[in-house]
Amino acid sequence: MIAGGSERGAKLAHMGLRTDTFDLAGLRLSAGEGRRLELEVAIDPFLLGGERYAVDPPLVRCRLDISRMTGDGYALRLRFEATLAGPCMRCLEQATPAFMVDAREVSQPGESDELSSPYVHRGVLDLHAWARDALALALPAKLLCRADCAGLCPTCGANLNQSGADHAHAQAPDPRWSKLSELRFE
Hints:
Layout: H1 6-12, E1 16-18, E2 21-23, E3 34-42, E4 46-48, E5 51-55, E6 59-68, E7 74-87, E8 94-95, E9 98-107, E10 120-121, E11 124-126, H2 127-138, H3 160-163
Parallel strand pairs: 1-3
Antiparallel strand pairs: 2-11, 3-6, 4-5, 5-7, 6-7, 7-8, 7-9, 10-11
């Protein structure tokens, strides 16, 4: 956990520090006061469609903006870029798509459930969980090696990105008409 007064907090704003949890109360911010921090957070791999997608590198540099609200509340903004590494969901080649994340949370204890962040508990921010969830929400339905990935041929399994547009197979006869081939006209 990180804690500190205003002098130490100013130093933290310019340093990248690895943290999984962050003591918001330790910043001792007054209502209306804010702080911007550069931190590093580890993001666990994802399991999507039975395949493992790891954040590469696993330690992601992020920017955390903290603003103190009245009472015990905080307005939080988390921004970072992360690259996932794993198989393309169409052609199975290595894919390394990058994603920009810009997430916001409000934590105002004692107010409605809408203003209660699941990532803040007793003045401590679970940055690890928030960063992973924010990245998960930024992911598309399919992770591809490139936007125009052609995938695999359904007949022979060839990578259509490499075989080109002229890849084709002779069309098999319709099995519903197979009995007609047994007819003999003599």
